[in-house]
Specification:
By secondary structure, the protein is mainly α. It contains 19 helices and no strands.
């Protein structure tokens, strides 16, 4: 069967995106999550500001973009769930069906990540209610800490918000590609952008905008070390939701006439722009209130509520901010669960609603290990720390970078030049040769460095 016949013969069992825009919104929603809103701005500010941003953008172009294109092309080529796709393509390309294990590792990684991600996302939902009720208005540090502690110390309260978030996620995925995933992202991603720009306008008038922008963008190359470069490499990879088969699953629903190259570039630009905008929202508010910007996760749930509590209109804008966080978490969550749901539908020939329900319940139950890691099981530490810490370490430091490495090796070395060129269909041979060089040499070397650094060997 020739290459064009291969492309035309396969159709996804789950349907496809109605347009290029739908895929861009879905992939952007997958990439934009809680980490974009707080981690990227914080890391950039502490690692040389504009110098880190320059390095990060270079890493996005040289590693993030070619890996994303590789995931999308594999997904669209196979038109099946990630496990089946990589098994079938491995066999077709003259290698082995055991490549399906790589797809399986991505599915399991997304499954495990969502189990704790849902709990953290539940914090955002809880803070929407806390903000709207005025819990942070005029609150001092002790009061804000009491709100956070009251949430994390309670199995029942954390469990309720975790449950609500999982229900929201399952309901969307159960409805299918166009009626569920696409309808959700068509509303949530534009709403996220509107909220972000409203909050940006608020930050500009906060009185700390110039200082916040300088913290994020002023280049300080004296802060740049080998560790900072590795951090930029890792951030470029993780921020795009690569290595967990989500983008591969979404690629399986991409129409044939959609350019993988230009679409991937659009997603990368959108994801990076949102991360930078988030920094321009957060840091001016922090600096305007004389607070410390280097609080990591505490910046969102401890420092910012304190800032909003002292500002005019803070109750309203705090509520908007946590709605923004919840939307970002929701669009990421539906991409994390989709590969497992697609696998179950194809493997057991069940409806999407049944598959989403079963997968969702299993993830929900597993999530209670994370819920209890913050309270009744907080003293049960081993390896990397609590149960939550160990699941986070396993997925983020081992499964994702290793999965991303094997995916790009598969696209660059196992798949033939004819197969990848036919699927990518780039405008010029030079563009294809550039992608192939990056996918075969640059990205694998960088991801090996990310992997070794993540496990403490580099």
């Amino acid at each position: 069967m020739n290459q064009d016949a291969v492309k035309g013969a396969r159709q996804s069992l789950h349907g496809q995106w109605s347009s290029r825009l739908a895929f861009i919104l879905a992939a952007t929603g997958s990439a934009v999550g809680l980490g974009n809103i707080w981690r990227f701005p914080y890391v950039a500010g502490e690692s040389g500001g504009g110098a880190f941003v320059i390095i990060y953008l270079g890493c996005i172009l040289l590693i993030g973009l070619p890996v994303m294109m590789s995931e999308v092309l594999i997904g669209r080529r196979g038109r099946r769930n990630p496990v089946r796709t990589m098994a079938v393509l491995g066999e077709e390309e003259g290698s082995t069906r055991f490549w399906g294990l790589v797809g399986g590792m991505g599915v399991v990684a997304g499954f495990l990540i969502l189990s704790f991600y849902s709990v953290i996302a539940g914090w955002s939902l809880a803070y929407v209610v806390e903000s709207a009720s005025g819990a942070f208005t005029g609150a001092d540090s002790a009061a804000v800490q009491a709100v956070f502690g009251g949430l994390t110390d309670s199995v029942s309260r954390l469990g309720i918000w975790h449950t609500l978030f999982m229900v929201l996620t399952v309901v969307v995925v159960a409805r299918g590609v166009q009626k569920g995933l696409e309808r959700a992202v068509r509303v949530l991603v534009p709403a996220l952008l509107v909220l972000l720009f409203v909050l940006l306008g608020y930050a500009i008038t906060s009185g700390g905008f110039a200082e916040g922008a300088a913290y994020l963008f002023r280049p300080d190359f004296s802060e740049v070390t080998g560790g900072v470069v590795l951090m930029a490499l890792g951030q470029a990879f993780f921020t795009l939701s690569l290595g967990m088969a989500a983008i591969m699953a979404y690629g399986a629903y991409l129409p044939e006439d959609t350019s993988i190259g230009s679409t991937s570039i659009t997603v990368v630009v959108a994801d990076t722009s949102i991360a930078l905008l988030a920094g321009l929202v957060i840091f001016p508010i922090v600096f305007a209130n004389g607070l410390a910007p280097d609080q990591g996760p505490g910046l969102i749930f401890l420092t910012l509520p304190l800032a909003f509590g002292d500002m005019a209109g803070g109750q309203f804008f705090a509520t908007l901010f946590f709605v923004l966080l919840s939307f970002a978490a929701w669009t990421s969550a539906i991409s994390m669960i989709e590969p497992a749901v697609a696998w179950m539908v194809e493997r057991f020939d069940v409806t999407r609603a049944a598959a989403a329900s079963v997968v969702g319940v299993i993830i929900w139950l597993l999530g209670f290990l994370t819920v209890m890691s913050f309270n009744v099981l907080s003293g049960a530490t081993f390896g990397a720390g609590t149960i939550f810490d160990n699941i986070d370490h396993l997925t983020s430091n081992i499964m994702l970078p290793l999965g991303g490495l094997l995916i790009v090796v598969f696209a660059g070395w196992v798949m033939s030049e004819n197969s990848t060129a036919n699927e990518l269909d780039l405008a010029t041979p030079a563009r294809y040769r550039l992608w192939r060089f990056l996918a075969r040499y640059v990205a694998p070397v960088a991801l090996v460095a990310v992997f070794l650094n993540a496990i403490g060997l580099f």
